[in-house]
Amino acid sequence: MHHAHGRSCGGRAARFSVMKSTAYPAVDTAIPDDGACTSAKRRQVMAAASELFMDQGFAGTSMDAVARKAGVSKATVYAHFASKEDLFEAMVAQGSVERFASLMAADLDTLGVEAALSTVAHEFMGVLTSPQSLKTLRLVMAEAGRRPDLAARFYRAGPARVLAALTAYLERSKARGDLEMEDPRIAAELFFGMIRGDLHMRRMLGLADQLQRTDISRLADTAVAVFLKAHRPAQR
């Protein structure tokens, strides 16, 4: 998903195994390296593209405009991204890594299960209340009817990647005996679903723009408590 100069990244990347079951497609949860592979010019291009996509929409943004905004040549843009679709997908993937930094990091497993899930829940609440995240989702939804391929790229690079990372964490927690559940994938979906709740709809409609931080924390903490009540082994 993350390309540079037509070759795969050779730097460090943390990877978790996803679902072994064939019921769900595998999703790459690698964390893009921010070294040579993610060069300064690549980051410039992605930052410029992000601004333009948010302001002009996907259809209204051209690779020429991205090059001008980034202050690089069009050839440089294409050296990093073969198409506007690839650029958008890379932008979404990078945003997922940044917004879910704890979930995508190996040291999540060093926390207790309650602390780990609380961290993930608060990160997810941050995404639900982020103007940038809302703008991106609205952009994709506006294009989805005409561009189902773009919607698929967005889902693969963002929501599917995050869901796969939480599923993998729950699998590891189950293997350690910290949690009990029949299907970690379904449990992951329900965990995010509890947090999303009615808030996501209200945010999408612009009806919850003045949320208090205490309300956000209470929603996240309640979701974690309910989840642990359902999945923590009885003896714990």
TrEMBL record:
SUPFAM superfamilies: Homeodomain-like, Tetracyclin repressor-like, C-terminal domain
UniProt keyword Heme present: no
InterPro entries linked to this entry: DNA-bd_HTH_TetR-type_CS, Homeodomain-like_sf, HTH-type_TetR-like_transc_reg, HTH_TetR, Tet_transcr_reg_TetR-rel_C_sf, TetR_C_Proteobacteria
Lineage top rank: taxon: Bacteria
Matches recorded under Pfam families: TetR_C_7 (PF14246), TetR_N (PF00440)
Domain named HTH tetR-type: residues: 39-99
Keywords annotated in UniProt: DNA-binding, Transcription, Transcription regulation
MF terms (GO), sorted A to Z: DNA-binding transcription factor activity; transcription cis-regulatory region binding
Ranges of the DNA-binding region feature: 62-81
Protein name per UniProt: TetR/AcrR family transcriptional regulator
Upper classification of the organism: Bacteria, Pseudomonadati, Pseudomonadota, Alphaproteobacteria, Rhodospirillales
